[in-house]
Amino acid sequence: MSDNQLAVDVVRGEMQPWSDYSGKRGAVQGPVLRALLADVLPDGARTLILGPHGADLIEAVVAKASETTLLVRSVSDATELTEQFADKLQVVAGALDGLAGADRPPFDVVVAADGLDRVLGYDSDDLNWAQRLDALAAVAAPGAVVVLGLENEFSLTNLLDRRPADERHADDEWRPLHDDPTRPVSTEQLKAELARVGFENASAYAAFSVEEAPFALVTAEVAAAARPGQLPARLAVEALEAAAVAVPLLAPIAEGAESAARAGLLGATPSGWIAVAGAAVGHGVYAKTPGHTAVLTADAAEAGWTVAVDAAPAEASGLLQFDAAAVPASVPGGVTAETLLFRLAAAEDVPGFRDFAARLGDWARSQTGSRTLVRWDDVVVDGDSFAFGVSGWQTVAEESDKDLLSAAWARFHDRLIGAHRRHPWPPWMIGDDLVSALVAMSGIEAPAPVAATAADTPSAAVAYVARGKELAAALAGVLGIPSDASQTPDVRTALAEAERAKKESVELAGQIFGLERTLGFRDKALKTRETRIREMRTQVTKANAERTRLRNSKAYSAVKLIRKAAMIRNPRKFAGKVKRKVNRQLRNKLG
User: Which SUPFAM superfamilies match (predicted)?
Assistant: First the structure.
């Protein structure tokens, strides 16, 4: 391109000062959408990128296109993008209706993954969503490939967001479409609108996004057929849980997603949709591997799912490391072991739970030489056996069977108790005690108990339970979903915790009242005993005084003398002794 072509081209509707790349809502981006574009976009086409897109998506489109034009409504954004991409593409500042009115040849490919919300400016006409789609069709050639995004107002994150509407949506859209009756609200309506303007046979992906980056893209057909515990539903729930970290919720989002999947409505509850018209459908599932930037693709097969992960080097993160080679090429189509464990716990089927836990323990111990971290939410039921799912996280060091099983049960404990699910164990049996019991159910016998030397002596199983908790915490950290203690709870959980705290406070108040009454009774008893002791001391003092006076009296002396005289057994002998003693005393006095 020449130097004059590097300058920003301006059409009607430009905005300044303004930026769509900063503020509450950023530009759409992410490796998952980049992988989809790489699969569906044709090579060597004249391409238009409509609206704010991340640098990674722009690079992916430029790599496929022969000539690329990027339309953003902000002049400052257009200037920065021109400097960033130099001679790779032509940047135009202005609105979509301004571009449609300009004398330009039509485009063979239109990428509008950000949707049609942020394509108008100050001077644009007040176009509704359908009219904006008409303007998009006006700049596209017949039979063009179109990638169009659409935000879903019925998404679970939006329905369960406890913030009011004016706080959920910023002014980035300039003319918001949230209440536009022409805006599609389902994949069928979206495809019908595309067909209306000439884009026939469009396919749609349910986009489960974390902020502005899709975490998982699932075709509408696959999403409709997904049930709780199956691969597409698991990936969607993980995406929703990751997205909910930054959103204050009314209720746990995983519960709603599983209910939607059970009703076959998972495809109606994502963050948005990505429609692809004029190109062959890509893979059935695109997903970012949890905790890593690698992209996982999956397609339905007869026995389950064929899985592939793009080349990603092994990467260590503390106790764990991600290895794409650890992800199996095929995964059974069954549900996870955790799904069945939750069902058995909710049904309070303790014998069935114990039997299933024993089978899981036997299978886990049979995986000799494998460092893949065992997690029941990714272990898939395969007939009478089990198989690893799509998690590529492994332990850095060699871990014993006890440590790996403890990690699996510690994660299960957190997801069971943290979600306030129904279970058959007493409410006070939580934490290490419950994890130890679950490990014992899976075939790891606890060491023989030893005599306690102190009241706080730890149990013999504390070593491998503590190691399992460390591994489970490391996995939660790399997955980007913090523990319940470190994130703001949803309103339902907060109300339940408040009710439980209120009940505990009433119980503690009753205990305190009982202890105060007992202390009062004991205080009165002590005062009564103290008074009695003082009275007895006074009586003893008086008795001692009377005894002293009695001993000092003449009568007592006479009685004492008489008593001694009465004790004389031989009076004559005694009289002789007295006589001799008197004579001796007389002689001493006279002589």
Answer: S-adenosyl-L-methionine-dependent methyltransferases
Backbone angles phi, psi at 46, to 5 degrees: -80, 120
Contact 155, 215 (CB under 8 A): no
**CB contact set of 383 (below 8 Å; sequence gap of 6+):** none
The residue type found at 99 is L
Instruction: Give CA separation, 316 vs 251, 320, 369, 390, in Å.
Output: 34, 6, 19, 18
Domain count, the chain: 3
The Cβ of residue 45 has, within 10 Å, a number of other Cβ atoms equal to 19
Query: Which residues have C-beta within 8 Å of that of residue 442, sequence separation ≥ 6?
Result: 357, 358, 360, 361, 364, 405, 409
Question: Of 460, 488, 516, which residue constitutes the final position of a domain?
Answer: 488
Both 343 and 280 in one domain: the answer is no
Helices and strands of the chain, counted as H and E runs? 19, 18
- The answer to whether the peptide bond before residue 164 is cis (omega within 30 degrees of 0) is no
Domain residues for 576? Answer: 564-588
The three-class DSSP label of residue 112 is: strand
β-bridge pairing 330-332 and 285-288: unpaired
CA distance 113 to 567: 128
pLDDT in tens, 105-153: 999 999 999 999 889 888 888 899 999 999 999 999 999 999 999 999 8
Residue 498 included in any domain: no
User: Is residue 191 predicted with pLDDT exceeding 90?
Assistant: yes
In sequence order, the 6+-apart residues with CB closer than 8 A to the CB of 308 are: 296, 297, 298, 329
CA distances from 554 to 454, 514, 547, 548 (A): 68, 62, 14, 12
The pTM assigned to this predicted structure is 0.80
Residues 394 and 452 placed together within one structural domain of the fold: yes
326 lies in some domain: no
Write out pLDDT tens, residues 59-102: 999 999 999 999 999 999 999 999 999 888 999 999 999 998 87
Q: Which of 382, 386, 378 is nearest to 361 (CA)?
A: 386
- Last residue of some domain: 466, 488, 510? 488
DSSP 8-class letter at 30: -
Tell whether 49 is covered by a domain: yes
Q: Is residue 544 part of a domain?
A: no
